[in-house]
Write a structure and sequence with these properties.
Largest sheet: 6 strands, parallel
CATH topology: TIM Barrel
Number of strands: 13
Order of helices and strands: EEEEEHEHEEHHEHEHEHEHEHH
Number of helices: 10
Strand order of the largest sheet: 8-9-10-11-12-13
Shape: globular
Oligomer: single chain
CATH class: Alpha Beta
Radius of gyration: 18 Å
C-alpha cells in the first residue's frame, strides 16, 4: 500500500503543523550519536557530556535566525537516543524530528545479517507506528539510510529496499547517506524500484561530489539533492559547495536542494572550536546572498524545501 505523506510533522515532543514553521530548518543534523569505532571518542555527541553545548547552540540559532526545526538523522546502530532528543528539544526550544533505519554497512546492527527485506521492513514499520522501544516517541523520517561506493553492498541493498518499503507503508520521507557523495544514482534506482516516488527521497552528501551533471539528473527525476555537509572544509571547500549549488539553481532545480551542516562529532561544536550548527546561517548563506540569492530563494532552500520533503506540503512563502 502506498501511504500518503503525513499532514503534520512528527517531532519528538508531538505533532507540529508545517505552517507553524516560520523560520529555517536544518534537515540533516545529529544532536546525539556514537559512531566511535576507533576508540578515541571523537565521533561522539554524548548527551551527558555535550548536551549543554548542543542546546546552547540551537537556542542561540533560534533567537538569532529563527531556527524552527531540526531533522536528526541518527538511526539504529548510530547511538540513537530519542529520550535525550526530547529533552534537548525542550531545553533549546526547537522542535526535533527523529529517524529510523540503518546507516551504511560498518554500522549495521545484528538483525540486518539474519533478517530478510520483509522482516527488516516490519521492524521499521513497527517502530514508526508504535514508537522507539517503550518511549512512545515515533520517528518522523527514514534516514540516514546508508551505502558506500558507487553500488550498495548486498547488505546495504537489503536495508535500502526495506527502508523504501517502510516509506511506502507509512508515508514517511527517506533520506540517504551516500558516502562522499558517491552512489546516489544507484540509491535512487533501488528506492524507486520499490515503488517509492522520487519526490519522497533525499539523496545525501551531494555537496561532496563535484559532479553537477549527477545533481541535475537526481533533481530532474524529482529527488531532493542534499548539500548537507556545509562547513566541513576538510571534505570539501564551501567555495566548491557554493559553485555546485549555484549550478543546480541556475539549471532550474532550486526547489530540489536542501542545506545543512551534518554536525557528527563533538569537535564540530562551537564550544570545542568547530564550525557549529550555525555555520550555514553565519557563513554560507551570506556568501550565497553575495552571489545573488534573494530572500525568497533563501527561504525556499532553508524552509519550504525541507517542509515539502517531510510532508509533501507546499507551505506559504514568508
Amino acid at each position: 500500500m502506498n501511504h500518503p505523506p503525513p499532514r503534520t510533522l512528527r517531532t519528538v515532543t508531538g505533532s507540529l503543523d508545517p505552517e507553524a514553521v516560520r523560520g529555517p530548518v536544518l534537515p540533516h543534523e545529529h544532536l546525539v550519536l556514537d559512531l566511535d569505532r576507533a576508540g578515541d571518542g571523537a565521533a561522539v555527541l554524548a548527551p551527558e557530556r555535550h548536551g549543554a553545548a548542543v542546546t546552547g547552540e540551537l537556542d542561540e540559532l533560534r533567537r538569532r535566525f529563527g531556527l524552527s526545526l531540526v531533522v536528526e538523522l541518527t538511526c539504529r546502530g548510530m547511538g540513537r537516543d530519542v529520550t535525550a532528543l526530547a529533552r534537548l528539544s525542550r531545553e533549546a526550544g526547537v522542535p526535533v524530528v527523529a529517524a529510523t533505519g540503518w546507516y551504511y554497512e560498518p554500522f549495521h546492527t545484528p538483525e540486518v545479517d539474519t533478517a530478510d527485506v520483509e522482516q527488516l521492513t516490519a521492524v521499521l514499520v513497527r517502530e514508526i507506528e508504535d514508537g522507539v522501544g517503550a518511549t512512545g516517541i515515533r520517528p518522523g523520517v527514514l534516514g540516514e539510510i546508508g551505502s558506500h561506493g558507487d553500488v550498495p553492498t548486498p547488505s546495504e541493498t537489503k536495508v535500502l529496499r526495506a527502508a523504501g518499503r517502510a516509506a511506502l507503508a507509512t508515508g514517511l520521507p527517506l533520506a540517504t547517506h551516500a558516502q562522499l557523495g558517491r552512489g546516489g544514482t544507484a540509491q535512487l534506482e533501488l528506492l524507486t524500484g520499490e515503488g517509492l516516488s522520487a519526490g519522497r527521497i533525499c539523496i545525501g552528501h551531494q555537496d561532496l561530489l563535484d559532479d553537477p551533471g549527477v545533481h541535475r539528473e537526481l533533481a530532474a527525476r524529482g529527488a531532493y539533492v542534499a548539500f548537507d555537509t556545509v562547513g566541513k572544509e576538510s571534505y570539501q571547500s564551501d567555495r566548491t559547495r557554493l559553485r555546485l549549488l549555484t549550478a543546480l539553481v541556475e539549471a532550474g532545480h532550486a526547489d530540489r536542494a536542501l542545506l545543512s551542516c551534518d554536525i557528527s562529532r563533538h569537535g564540530y561544536l562551537r564550544a570545542e572550536g568547530g564550525q557549529g550548527y550555525g555555520h550555514l546561517f553565519e557563513e554560507f548563506l551570506p556568501r550565497l546572498r553575495a552571489a545573488g540569492a534573494d530572500d525568497d530563494l533563501v527561504d525556499l532552500l532553508t524552509r519550504r524545501n525541507p517542509l515539502r520533503f517531510l510532508t509533501g506540503a507546499n507551505v506559504e512563502e514568508n
